[in-house]
């Protein structure tokens, strides 16, 4: 197995590249430690922080962890596309929310606000004219409010504030405009349920693809191992008959040599008798 040149070399696999990088960093760390307090190599001590990456070497040896990491890595590109779509919807609903609720999320804060109808009445009563924490006064505040809506944490209060909104510098009235409910429901349906669930769908789809790819690789490896075993068996079968043939040939030559020696001895004895 080579280092880089070839199909099945060491650096052709990304997991081997990660493993080799961690080993290289460890070697540099050892050299820096042996150098002691050298001023030139003092900057390289930052590489010791990369020791935290050593547990990643376990991933290449655990098929389950390797599958999960490959799924997350392959999901980055489609997730980026979904993020762009999600941001586009957030900006659209944010601009729409500013147009509908800008300056309308203020209310009079005081002990008795039943007779308060607007900002001037609130200030005359020495009360405070304040706004809600999440509002739509500008695009930034609108995006923050929409993010809370998408997280479904405290979104009901924001929706009720939108329903109670009357006008700019006017005291909110309970359920003043129920039709504003369509704005919040449409945002929840489009963004919270469909767009955000697309993240999960992309990850699940890539997980199945990576698992199929891993299964195909495992099947190829098993097939290669099986072929190697079959090749070894064939070679062992061919070697045994060759040994038998060479043994037989060696035995037959020896027998022929012994017969020739016996024939020569018989001829010599016969000649002596005639003399």
Question: What is the number of helical segments per DSSP (H or I, 4+ residues)?
Answer: 7
Content of β-strand:
under 5%
According to CATH, what is the class of the domain at 80-204? Mainly Alpha
What oligomeric assembly is this protein in?
Answer: single chain
- Average pLDDT, rounded to a whole number, is 76
In words, what does this structure look like?
This protein has 275 residues and is mainly α. Among the domains are: 10-61; 80-204, Helix Hairpins. It is 67% helix and 3% strand. It has helices spanning 14-35, 63-74, 76-101, 119-124, 139-151, 155-164, 181-274, and strands spanning 106-109, 128-131. Strands 1-2 form a two-stranded antiparallel sheet. The longest helix is centred in the C-terminal third of the chain and has 94 residues, at 181-274. The relative contact order is 0.07. Residues 227-240 have a biased composition (Basic residues).
Task: Give a quick set of tags describing it.
275 residues; mainly alpha; two-stranded antiparallel ribbon; 7 helices; 2 strands
Provide a compact summary of the structure.
This protein has 275 residues and is an all-alpha fold. Among the domains are: 10-61; 80-204, Helix Hairpins, CATH 1.10.287.70.
Topology:
Blueprint: H1 14-35, H2 63-74, H3 76-101, E1 106-109, H4 119-124, E2 128-131, H5 139-151, H6 155-164, H7 181-274
Antiparallel strand pairs: 1-2
Helix pairs in contact: 2-7, 3-5, 3-7, 5-7
């Amino acid at each position: 197995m080579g280092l880089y040149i070839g199909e099945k070399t060491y650096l052709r696999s990304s997991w081997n590249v990660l493993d080799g990088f961690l080993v290289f960093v460890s070697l540099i760390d050892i050299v820096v430690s042996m150098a002691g307090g050298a001023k030139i190599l003092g900057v390289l001590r930052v590489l010791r922080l990369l020791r935290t990456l050593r547990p990643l070497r376990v991933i290449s040896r655990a098929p389950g962890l390797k599958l999960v990491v490959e799924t997350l890595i392959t999901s980055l590109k489609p997730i980026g596309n979904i993020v762009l779509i999600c941001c586009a919807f957030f900006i659209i609903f944010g601009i729409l929310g500013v147009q509908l609720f800008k300056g309308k999320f203020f209310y009079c804060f005081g002990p008795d606000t039943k007779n308060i109808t607007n900002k001037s009445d609130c200030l005359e009563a020495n009360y405070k004219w304040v706004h809600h924490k999440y509002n739509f006064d500008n695009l930034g505040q609108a995006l923050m409010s929409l993010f809370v809506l998408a997280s479904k944490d405290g979104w009901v209060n924001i929706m009720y504030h939108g329903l109670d909104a009357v006008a700019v510098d006017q005291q909110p009235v309970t359920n003043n405009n129920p039709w504003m409910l369509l704005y919040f429901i449409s945002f929840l349906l489009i963004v919270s349920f469909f767009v955000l669930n697309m993240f999960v769908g992309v990850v699940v789809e890539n997980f199945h693809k990576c698992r199929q790819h891993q299964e195909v690789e495992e099947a190829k490896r098993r097939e290669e191992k099986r072929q190697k075993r079959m090749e070894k068996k064939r070679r062992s079968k061919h070697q045994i008959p060759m040994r038998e043939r060479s043994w037989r040939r060696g035995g037959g030559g020896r027998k022929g040599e012994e017969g020739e020696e016996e024939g020569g001895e018989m001829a010599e004895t016969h000649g002596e008798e005639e003399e």
